[in-house]
Design a protein that fits this description.
This protein is an alpha/beta fold. It has two domains: 127 residues, P-loop containing nucleotide triphosphate hydrolases (Rossmann fold), CATH 3.40.50; 86 residues, Rossmann fold. 52% of the residues lie in helices and 16% in strands. It is built from nine helices and eight strands. The strands form two sheets. A five-stranded parallel beta sheet has the order 2-6-1-7-8, with helices on both faces. A hairpin with a 2-residue loop joins strand 3 and strand 4. It is globular and about 50 Å long. The chain starts with a strand and ends with a helix. 38% of the residues are buried. It binds 2'-deoxycytidine-5'-monophosphate. The site of 2'-deoxycytidine-5'-monophosphate has 14 residues, from helix 2, helix 4 and helix 8.
Length: 216
């Protein structure tokens, strides 16, 4: 079975998807990490961000591998490196590029072959796996999402003010929603779950119940 979890930045998709996958005995795919890895490769190769064709060429020839919870770029484990602020700030160049998206969509489908999987991102239920048996749209209010991001950044030793985070988040939400290819959209057949005021366990309980109800 394929379970898709889409939603905006900071809705808690990654932790929830990982925990849900563990409970179900499914594998977990974090597709945001793939866009981030392409952006990191762009930084490393010093591509000119004003020449998108450079990034597309790099992405389509890149040695990018996903194995369990880890992501490898040219053989190096970059799972933690892709979450830095520097990478976050340039990932839109990868996410907005149609050729990069086409390439990553193919990789995502290849990972899913003959596997039970919980996959998370923005376009998993709409573009990548429109036939998925269970689709979830996970969201939370802008304030709640920004507070979570602030806690994450503090833990990484990259503190930011809430105002700055809210401003960045608003810009990223806008970019996510208005992207010409693979925009953030709730699939018509997705179940929306608002996570404000819920603990992570409560969210995972709810999702597990939903997935199990689709198994019969
Ligand atoms: O979920 P995240 O913050 O790790 O995602 C990183 C970026 O990649 C974000 O700008 C949205 C984009 N993204 C996307 O366009 N499509 C996906 N399936 C996953 C992420």
């Amino acid at each position: 079975m394929i379970v898709t979890i889409d939603g905006p930045a900071g809705a808690g998709k990654s932790t929830v998807a990982r925990s849900l996958a563990r409970r179900l005995g499914y594998s977990h795919l974090d597709t945001g990490a793939m866009y981030r890895a392409v952006a990191l490769a762009g930084l490393q190769s010093k591509v000119d961000w004003n020449r998108p064709e450079q990034l597309a060429e790099l992405a389509t020839t890149l040695d990018l591998r996903v194995s369990g919870e880890r992501i490898y770029l040219r053989g190096e484990d970059v799972t933690d490196a892709v979450r830095s602020q520097e990478v976050t700030s340039v990932t839109r160049h990868a996410a907005n590029h149609p050729q990069v998206r086409d390439h990553l969509v193919l990789l995502q489908r290849a990972v899913a072959t003959e596997q039970n999987m919980v996959t998370e991102g923005r376009d998993q239920g709409t573009v990548v796996f429109p036939q998925a048996e269970c689709k979830i749209f996970l969201t939370a209010s802008a304030e709640e999402r920004a507070r979570r991001r602030q806690r994450d950044l503090q833990q990484r030793g990259e503190p930011e003010t809430l105002e700055q985070i809210l401003a960045d988040q608003e810009r990223r939400d806008h970019e996510d929603a208005t992207r010409e290819v693979g925009p953030l959209l709730r699939a018509e057949d997705a179940v929306e779950v608002l996570t404000d005021g819920l603990t992570q366990d409560q969210v995972v309980d709810r999702l597990e119940e939903l997935v199990r109800s689709r198994m019969t």
